[in-house]
Amino acid sequence: MKSKKILAAATAALMAFSPISVMAESTEASTEASTEGEATAVTTVGPENGTKFEMWSFVDVHNEFYGKMVDLWNKQNPDKPVTITFTTYPYSDMHNKLMMSLQAGEGAPDMCDVEIGQFPNYTGENCPLYPLTDALAPYEDKMVKSRLDVYSQADGTRIGVPTHVGASVMYWNAEIFEKYGLDYKSVKTWDDYTKLGEQLKEASNGEVYLTSVDTGGTDWMWVAMAEYGEDWTGGPDGEVNVELDSVKKMLTMQQQWLKDGIAMVSTDGHVDLEAGYKNISEGKIASFPKAMWFMSRFVNYMPEMKGKYDITTIPVFEDGQKCSVGIGGTGTVVTNQCKNPELAAEWLTWAKCSKEGEEHIWNDLGFDVCNKSLWSDKAFAYDKSNVYNTFFRVMPYEVLNELADKDAIGTVYTTSVSPTLNDYINTTTLNEVLEEGKDVDEALAEAQDYVDMEIG
Amino acid sequence: MYKIKKALNSQKVAPFVFVLPFILSLLIFWAYPLISGIVMSFQNIDFGVKVWVGPAHYLKLAHDKFFRIAVWNSIEYMALTLLLMIPIPLLLAVLMESRLTKAKGVWKVIMYIPALTSVVISGMLFRMMFSEADGSQMNRLLEWFGKAPIAWLKSKPTAWVALLLLCMWRWTGVNILYFLSGLKSIDDVLYEAADIDGASARQKFWYITLPLIKPTTIYVVTISVYAGLAMFLESFMLWNGNSSPKNIGLTIVGYLYKRGIEKNDIGYACAVGVILLIIALAINTIQLVATGTFKKEER
Amino acid sequence: MTASTAKVRISHHTAGTIISTGLFAIIGFFIAFPLVAGLLASFHPGRELVQNGLSLNLDFKTMTLNNYKYLFGFGGGDSKVDSAKYFLWYKNSLVLTITTVILTLLVCYFVAYGLTMYNFKLRGFLLFLVIATMCVPFEILMLPLYQEVTGMKLINTNAGVILPGLCAASTIFFFRQYMVTLPRELLDAARIDGCSEYGISVRIMMPITKPAFASMAILCAMGSWNNMLWPMLVFRDAKKFTLQIGLNTLLTPYGNNYDLLIAGSMFGIIPILAVYLLFQKYLIEGMTAGALKG
């Protein structure tokens, strides 16, 4: 009885203390002991004597790619080997965690992938990232400049290394146009495009829409702004202005398409969603503008579309305009908690900008690479073993080279006002204009008021 | 030694020994973070550099119409979930307990599984069922009734049907579980006595079950108040992100993420959080005082 | 099955039985529909779900076990996820959940016991604090708590995940609300028998709180199994990731691995469902009428 009493008292009273020590001990022990048997779960690449780094990403295949680049680096640079431990986190949580650890001043990785939309959070006065201008210098003139600019401070200091251009292009369901005997290849301007839409409507009895316009995404607006060389964020140090001619023209045109039954509103808001893939694969829509990386959606979710789709440049409002813009992206950074930032930066820029790295980015990840010097390299760009080179009716780099020749890729910045701006446009403006037919000027004026109030 | 043991065993000291873990946890894991959180709501925080801005965040909140939308949506959602998620699960639990229902185990398991499915998957399933596409389940149902398909998630009334159904789908089984364990604490003798007195099923429900299950009901109300006000994931899941058309699915926590955390404005996020805390605490305190939960002697 | 049993037992309850059971059958159907559709989808290539939406199409010809093969590592070189990883996440989740449930239930039970079974000055205030902590949005605490746990060297440990949530206010409050209805006379009887305060809490009260333990075990396990935000911040080593963290890495801005995600999530329900089946029988036991007369 007595011993039981003591036991009961002890359990109750010590409840708060005991688990701390027990658990802390046991978990630490297991960390050390478990390195061997569970080697597959944790990815550390590189030799024992290499300089150790920790790197996070939110895409597993990015880390696989970096792993390959570590091996290659160590082969080429036996004098300065690196050893990197890679961790893949869920997308929004990784950014959340990176933010916490940089705010707290401890616990951040040495290198990390940052999605472009999150990037503005890390720029500014107290930027917690290591400047990469020097490390990027050897590649600077070969890279697509606008892609370096979007991962830079307002003063031009480079702080992120880009992964892809994300050049927006026009995807066409060539099979549909052939079926109705329509010529999409001669479309140069939006007027041509609209006419084609009328023809398609007539030929298909209104069953096939020329395209679907987005209420939950700003890709169309970005294209329009790039064509007119405008930017609603105002750039790194400009002022927000959503009441742009380009945006007004695009929205007015889209409103007219909807009225005329040429276009539909994208099911669930934009085409990069389950319902969008369905509309594409069922031939409900015949064309749409999207970034190059949308190619992987075809391969992953719509493999039966092989050979049916074509890619061209996007129509323009007026001849001679730019007709593409880099959309989306991931900038990889070196944080200020890195103990050996020079080496990290050297490895990172090499891994993502050198020919060796870009080959993997194109062949493994399927991205249009930022190193322009490779675009015309036949062995690099037109290799038939690359899945995208045989999936579409055109080799993607042919379109990219066309864009490069015309210097047709414009820039729209992602800045600290972008989240507010995009949010209002996506939740409110586009819905008002495209779903409810609200007056374009009025809707944009309200958007402007809101954004001014938010940031003012 | 004996004295200490005796003291520890006295009815004066024992309660404090029992609640010690809570007090410790409160001091270690709540007091500091909460106070820092409140302090941060008066600051701008940019990577270690903190600047005192006074009530600026709160003033901004007071003037933000989207914050008002968010607060209103959250309160509305809370009220509706209370209306739906207390009486229905309670009645179902009573029915489940009665001899009338067969194959109880099967129904209980089916109703409980939704709470276990991952948030991502259940969001995707509901998004597909309520898709505006012609082939979605809900639009086919409309078709069956001879109605034209609609864009369920683009206007508030229909979107909220989806939102509330999702809530009921996920949590009805869990609330039933609470009520079932509450029903178990009612002494069978009471029902037997009522049977002898010839009470009807309805009378037994009104005069025995309902009063005696009150503590459980209060519990479910209390957690539902906070859960309803802090709802975020359901909306996030249904619209595949934190943006819904015309903000029909914007909630306080959604606003907190959108305007605070996603924009690296932790101070602002904390101010939103503090307001949520105040609203939830106020409603719950009123509710608990009104139901007499804080009274010294309950019986 | 239900209809035939109802017919056999002819009584005046028959109509009620049919209505009541029928009601549950209807509700059950609507609840099960998305689940079954999801389960069926896990036997189809992910792109089919993506393109065609949900369906209850039971066409065995098009069904495949490929998603599960990938998941369990029999998919060969094609596999998009390392099966060793999946099972490691699974194991981590199990360990974390079991530890959390046991510790949380014990701690919360005793705290609630202290709050309910004694009259003391601070009681009302402490109860208010319990309620108050239930109303604090985690997002306010996130950054300071992260700093604190880092400072305590608990980052990347299970302890760092479990300890801050050990005194779960909602669990305490549930136990409290349950115990409030129990007669305190039992305690006095035990005291007269010479039982210590702590002995009473373990040997007299614990057995009659079984239904509360059962439902809290089920709920706690569910919460811990699905918890993601805080474990995500604490763990910084892929070896320690839980199933939820791991599965969510399959969703990326560059495309979602629906194949694995849906199979992985469906398979992930199993242990937590086992917990339910294990504990729900205690829910049924309830109170024995005789022990509590008074």
From TrEMBL, chain A:
**Which range is the signal sequence, renumbered to this chain?**
1-24
**Gene3D superfamilies linked:** Periplasmic binding protein-like II
Alphabetic keyword roster: Cell membrane, Lipoprotein, Membrane, Palmitate, Signal
SUPFAM superfamilies noted in UniProt: Periplasmic binding protein-like II
Superkingdom:
Bacteria
Q: Which PANTHER family match?
A: ARABINOSE-BINDING PROTEIN-RELATED, POLYGALACTURONAN_RHAMNOGALACTURONAN-BINDING PROTEIN YTCQ
Protein name from the UniProt record = Extracellular solute-binding protein
Q: Which organism is it from?
A: Porcincola intestinalis
Lineage, highest ranks first: Bacteria, Bacillati, Bacillota, Clostridia, Lachnospirales
UniProtKB/TrEMBL annotation, chain B:
Q: Which GO biological process categories is it annotated with?
A: transmembrane transport
Chief location category: membrane
**What Gene Ontology cellular component terms go with this record?**
plasma membrane
InterPro entries in the record, alphabetically? ABC_transporter_permease, MetI-like, MetI-like_sf
Cross-referenced Pfam families: BPD_transp_1 (PF00528)
Cited PANTHER family:
ABC TRANSPORTER PERMEASE PROTEIN, INNER MEMBRANE ABC TRANSPORTER PERMEASE PROTEIN YCJO
Q: Which domain of life is it from?
A: Bacteria
Recorded hits in CDD domains, A to Z, give: TM_PBP2
Spell out the protein name for this chain.
Answer: Sugar ABC transporter permease
- Please name the taxonomic classification of the source: Bacteria, Bacillati, Bacillota, Clostridia, Lachnospirales
Give a yes or no for keyword Lipid metabolism in this entry.
no
Where would you find this protein in the cell? Cell membrane
UniProtKB/TrEMBL annotation, chain C:
- Ranges that cross the membrane: 21-43, 94-113, 125-146, 158-175, 212-233, 260-279
- Gene3D superfamilies per the UniProt record, alphabetical: MetI-like
| SUPFAM superfamilies reported for this sequence | MetI-like
Classification via CDD domains: TM_PBP2
Q: Which compartments is it annotated to reside in?
A: Cell membrane
> What is the topology of this protein in the membrane according to its UniProt annotation?
Multi-pass membrane protein
Q: Is Transmembrane helix one of the keywords UniProt gives this record?
A: yes
GO annotations under biological process?
Answer: transmembrane transport
Q: Which InterPro entries match?
A: MetI-like (IPR000515), MetI-like_sf (IPR035906)
Q: Principal localization?
A: membrane
Domain annotation ABC transmembrane type-1: ranges: 90-279
Keywords per UniProt = Cell membrane, Membrane, Transmembrane, Transmembrane helix, Transport
A Gene Ontology cellular component where this protein is annotated is: plasma membrane
| Presence of the UniProt keyword Protein transport in the record | no
Provide the family line: Belongs to the binding-protein-dependent transport system permease family.
For this entry, the protein name equals Carbohydrate ABC transporter permease
The species this protein was found in: Porcincola intestinalis
